[in-house]
Amino acid sequence: MNLPDLSAMEQFGARIAGHLKAGDVIALSGGLGTGKTTLARAILRALGHEGEVPSPTFTIIESYDHLDPPVVHADFYRLEDPSEVEQLGLDDYRDGAVLIAEWPDHAGGFAVEPGCLQITLEIAGNGRKAIVEGGKDWLERLP
Ligand SMILES: Nc1ncnc2c1ncn2[C@@H]1O[C@H](COP(=O)(O)OP(=O)(O)O)[C@@H](O)[C@H]1O
Ligand SMILES: [Mg+2]
């Protein structure tokens, strides 16, 4: 899928936001600067979040409990081992919420979960390209 500019990111984020339910994971892969946080912000804004969306690079986890569904935005880049996810208490944060995960592979990956939508972003000219893969659950929701 081509995402030539920021408005394409906003639209894609809004499309995802319209289908989210608690327990889902939006796994955002791709190198530094490929647009993972941009897409996370677009999803959060489409869900009605009006404040800032700090990049969770240093805090690792940011929670948006006031949204419906609530969202946990995580950036696992700094994890050195997937086992550190437990120490973060991720399961408690995720309870009843959607997880938007940057660098999901650093947390062991979430692809085995049926509610996981995997999006891999890459640079394409001045814009971005996305490879989107989802379980059966997502294929029905995002045809
Ligand atoms: N589809 C796009 N087209 C052009 N620029 C984009 C697009 N998506 C994101 N960007 C820009 O890329 C830069 C890095 O984005 P960011 O979301 O911080 O990347 P990441 O979280 O993957 O490191 C930002 O300046 C952002 O505005
Ligand atoms: Mg980022």
What small-molecule ligands were found?
adenosine-5'-diphosphate, magnesium ion
User: What structural class do the secondary elements suggest?
Assistant: alpha/beta
Q: What does the radius of gyration come to?
A: 14 Å
Instruction: Kindly identify the CATH topology.
Output: Rossmann fold
* CATH A-level architecture: 3-Layer(aba) Sandwich
Task: Estimate percent helicity.
Answer: 25-40%
Helix run count = 5
Taking pLDDT < 50 over at least 5 consecutive residues as the criterion, the unreliable ranges are: none
- What's the rounded overall pLDDT mean? 95
String of helices and strands: EHEHEEHHEEEH
Apparent shape: globular
N-to-C CA distance: 13 Å
> How many strands?
7
Q: What's the CATH C level?
A: Alpha Beta
Overall domain count: 1
State the main characteristics.
single chain, 143 residues, alpha/beta, Rossmann fold, seven-stranded mixed β-sheet, 27% helix, 27% strand, globular, binds adenosine-5'-diphosphate, binds magnesium ion
Describe the structure.
The chain is α/β, with parallel strands linked by helices and 143 residues long. It has one domain: Rossmann fold (3-Layer(aba) Sandwich), CATH 3.40.50.300. 27% of the residues lie in helices and 27% in strands. It is built from 5 helices and 7 strands, in the order E-H-E-H-E-E-H-H-E-E-E-H. It has helices spanning 6-17, 36-46, 84-88, 90-94, 136-141; strands spanning 2-3, 25-29, 61-64, 71-75, 98-102, 116-124, 127-134. It has a 7-stranded mixed β-sheet with strand order 1-7-6-2-5-4-3. A hairpin with a 2-residue loop joins strand 6 (116-124) and strand 7 (127-134). The model has no long low-confidence stretch (mean pLDDT 95). It binds adenosine-5'-diphosphate (ADP) and magnesium ion. Residues 3, 5-6, 8-9, 30, 32-38, 102, 126-128 line the site of adenosine-5'-diphosphate. The site of magnesium ion (MG) has 5 residues, from helix 2.
